[in-house]
Design goal:
4 copies of one chain form a homotetramer.
Chain A: H1 13-22, H2 34-47, E1 52-56, H3 59-70, E2 76-80, H4 84-87, H5 92-97, E3 101-105, H6 114-122, E4 133-139, H7 150-160, E5 166-171, H8 174-181, H9 185-188, E6 196-200, E7 210-214, H10 223-229, H11 238-248, H12 252-272, E8 278-279, E9 287-288, E10 290-293, H13 294-302, E11 308-309, E12 325-331, H14 338-353
Parallel strand pairs in A: 2-3, 2-4, 4-5, 5-6
Antiparallel strand pairs in A: 1-7, 6-7, 8-10, 9-12, 10-12, 11-12
Helix pairs in contact in A: 1-11, 2-11, 6-7, 8-12, 12-14, 13-14
């Protein structure tokens, strides 16, 4: 019963098979290969627009390179104060941006609101005391399992445009958020004002496949040099491209992410039926954040259930964690079995019954 | 007849198989997996010493991170003036070093001599006009197909120690150089004074496997943070580790590199038997640099032979390329067939016969 | 009645005279001059220890270079969440540190406590998610006019040493804090654990004179290169050195700062005697932070009193600003006249009387 | 007889007096003062165009900030291979550019030719192996005392425009070069295609006054943030502005530089009349580069003549230094006396006579 993350499993059989098939023969290095070309075409279809694609090896690199594309070294990037780019990437965004500042904004469930953006700009002192704010980075889904609706994204975009900011979306769990929102990829990105997207494949069934996608193609100018300089241009790039090709082919991504989300839903439904358990934030993607008695967590751990305890800072005030409670994060994946879910729920119920 | 590079083929069957096998099941992310642990142990055996290993995704990243580990932002890294780190990595070393300066030294065949190092230090003006020299980076083999002997490496190490420099070896073709020298991995590295090594797997049969290896382990302090910040810490690191495991297992690397070197030897032997062809530099690893009539190159190209023309700056003066000549680079790989070699030689001979 | 800052006046007559006198004749450039040599000797006497001194042109440069000397590009610098280095230097510390992260800690009146440091370390997640914390920067005095006692500084030093951090002191108003504490320069710095100090002269009677002073001299290694690379090595450095020489000569700094502090005391005493006015934080240095009715501020402004309204985030909870109140910052300088002080107090009293 | 540099003397009496006068009273900090406003107006008149001005403290900072304004972190700046920005600024340009690469081009007397620019572009390999070339930096005058004519500058500008480069002029000795060329400031800058200029005052009679001047004002966007972040925004900026005001007032700069140039001419004329002495490069500005017998230099040194020996790499081949010869640099300043010149010449003549 392993729910630590969705990056602890390998690739889906179909994607692994694509790697094996792509291995044969000569291919141009550094992206001059047929797989890369096909993936670029697929992504234009997927997003229903022209765009620029750059394959990279990690989500951290994708986010950091994308941040650098919208925020110069002398600028400020705003994001949620508990976002992955602030808290979990060991300063990679600052490094790739060349020393720019990242400033965190508050918000329930890891989501930034237009009101928070407005308040932040109103509090700016003017003059040259602070590096000018150049970009906003949001996570879809957030560190707390929530997904912005296209309307919410569009409202954020509207809030930042008068200030000249560009909008980046960290889509490490893009597939899961897309299914949660039930909209099209285009609606969730460029139609709502997203300029650049980190599209994650690794957490949804690839072994290592991430992409930086530019809807505002002027931002992609020189990006091939930035990627190379960032150590992210693979000589045998077909390794990544083949994964994305299989990922996108016949909506394989949807199959994978739907399963992961469904497993999370099953877990959320199961747990919330048990006295003493409530959710920190609504279950929307492939993550569940139950608040439960600390003793129950101890019991589950002893029974072999693996998950992380989580930050409670971003909870709504009325949903605060009591001293004898704990908030946990369960992540499901394309490989999670219903049996595992049911096992967790059964054990929690056992404990609740005493 | 494809000799553009050794990074245009996929992985060897054994290494590909290792990827497939490693794909199953849960494994700790970011390197907390059994494959990584085994590879670290293997490498300690391979090099006959304790050491620190960090797996990364590209040779550019390996070199740039290693350079940063021996040269601070306010320092200077010296290397050959036509080295890969100066000419072919799009400024990645400067980026990862945080703006340090790279200064190129002259030398035949891409090799730096102790004399060149001494001369460089003697010409330094003192004061604070120049960033202090902190590291030396050498390539094994060089951009011109040569490999340093352990004695040559030790002499370089002796030349830089009084100035406090650290020594980095770019081992993108480490396997090929090792076979060429016929010495042990230890003799070619730490026993000769190498502090940090970029060990390449990608060009010798892996799909994407590079490692930064610290013999001077004090340099590895904080390196896990630097790697993460550099976007080079894979969540599913077993993807790289499994390749290295197969690469090292039962001297598979030797099998691969020996074949590639033998194919280069076959090509060198074949070509130098043809009137009008001589070698720019001795064939030592899996590269051959014939100087031939420009018209012959045109003929070979028309016949489907693919290779690059190459820089002549690093030739010995007595070996200069005539106006009607051209110098070419042929790279062989673990997959190169003797038939391909013989095909090139036969066509060159045909042309020479008129 | 001008209280916007202590950097809006020129130099004291004695210091200006020193510039004029130093102007004559040839002198070695880039610090190889007699003034620089004398100042270094003076500072060793002033601090009663051996040390390394580097003169620079701005407080921002002094802080940023000092921060870089204690925190590498892949590190984290902790400081107060409303410190000058976070909020007012336009990202200079991030730039000079090469992209390191700055994280702000809470604390009343801009002061960090050992408890806040402990709490911060306890909340760190471990692993490689965050850049390792390498340094602590404190301001003496703070952005809210408070000065740490030597005991407080020593307690902070004790709190960070087990974690390997180095301690920087931003001493833009060092003279004022020193007089407020009534201790020796040595007691307020290295005897309490300060490793590197930004010593400000500009705000206390110089035209442009700042120094980075290393008590931990191992940190000063290579610093001359860092300073030059940072554009901070003046060819005619005697311009700065002559100012510091006069500043230190016969305790001129004490004369200047004592006056400024006394004027602040006079203002604090005058204002707190008026109904409706209280201080946000105790008056300790040359700054006064009265909380007063917003209407009173309007009246003072109309009467020609110039000062800034200020942040209330760092107030003690019991001292919160009411909706109809405002908190202001008045800064006095070596040139402030008692008449100006009395003028402000009289006008405030007039308003209070109605 | 002191000819080591033109930065070893203080300020001219008029400029020193301006500092003294500017010292009195309150003034807005960080450039919000009347002196700064007046200087900006003066410079618009001086250059006969609209422009943006940013005062800074060192020539190194001016060049480094200007370089950063025309070349992004992922770009390449080309300049002469023995230029000040490559050889004498301790990596400041690389630092301020954020890790960009500087590549040196050859050329006699420190001057770059359109042919050298063309040759460099032709040799570029394409692809992403090298950071894209974004800017050209030339020195007016060069490290070897030569000044480009407006026609030469325009030809360089024409050579780079098709490649999208911007043109920076390092004008540390702008005044001297301007007098040497006998043209207008406008002709020597924007009318010839210069986009951004480092205008030096320090070497021509100021204590510390440098300016970055943007003729292409789009490049100045955000530059106030970059300057502040670079630690170059003085709180009491009137210190610099007052110097420039006096420097520009009534052509004081011309008076100072004409004298320095005339002294250099006197030295050049005197020395070239002596058997065994010839000039390395023509005397054009306030520098003289005699090639003389090594023994003569020994004699002069013993007689108290102070100057540097200099690099011979940039000599025309036909003017090479013989083994028993040496090439020297003499720099004259606004304070150099004719007596000093005559003293050097007399001693050289004495030696020549035996």
């Amino acid at each position: 019963m392993y729910f630590l993350s969705d990056n602890t499993v390998g690739a889906s059989p179909k994607i692994l098979d694509a790697i094996v098939k792509a291995n044969a023969g000569h291919a141009g290095s550094y992206g001059a290969d047929a797989w890369t070309e096909r993936v670029e075409k697929q992504l234009r279809g997927f997003f229903e627009c022209d765009l620029d694609v750059f394959l990279v090896t990690t989500g951290t690199a994708a986010n950091a390179l994308a941040a650098a594309a919208i925020c110069p070294p002398w600028g400020t990037l705003i994001t949620h104060r508990e976002s992955h780019v602030i808290d979990d990437e060991c300063g990679a965004p600052e490094f790739f941006m060349g020393g720019a500042k990242i400033v965190g904004l508050p918000g329930i469930g890891g989501k930034i609101t237009p009101e928070a953006v407005h308040a932040h700009f109103e509090a700016e002192p003017g003059g040259t005391r602070r590096p000018p704010i150049k970009g906003l980075s949001i996570a879809q889904g957030t560190e707390f399992g929530l997904a912005y609706s296209p309307q919410e994204i569009a409202a954020l975009s509207a809030a930042i445009r008068p200030h000249g900011l560009k909008l980046h979306m960290d889509g490490a769990r893009f597939s899961n958020a897309l299914i949660a929102q039930g909209c099209s990829p285009a609606e969730m990105t460029w139609k709502s004002g997203v300029d650049v997207l980190s599209l994650g494949g690794t957490k949804n069934g690839c072994l290592m496949a991430e992409a930086v996608i530019f809807f505002d193609r002027t931002l992609a100018e020189d990006f091939r040099f930035r990627r190379k300089r960032g150590g992210q241009t693979l000589s045998k790039q077909r390794l990544i491209a083949a994964q994305f090709e299989a990922f996108l082919d016949q909506d394989h991504w949807r199959e994978l992410a739907s399963h992961a989300n469904a497993m999370a839903r099953r877990l959320a439904d199961g747990l919330t039926g048990i006295p003493g358990i409530r959710l920190g934030w609504a279950q929307q993607i492939n993550e569940v954040f139950p608040i439960m008695p600390r003793a129950m967590w101890g019991y589950l751990t002893a029974q072999g259930v693996k998950c992380y305890d989580w930050s409670e800072t971003s909870l709504a005030p009325e949903n605060a964690v009591a001293p004898d409670e704990v908030i946990l994060r369960f992540v499901t994946s394309f490989e999670t079995h219903a049996d595992e879910i049911d096992g967790v729920v059964a054990r929690a119920r056992d404990f609740a019954k005493g």
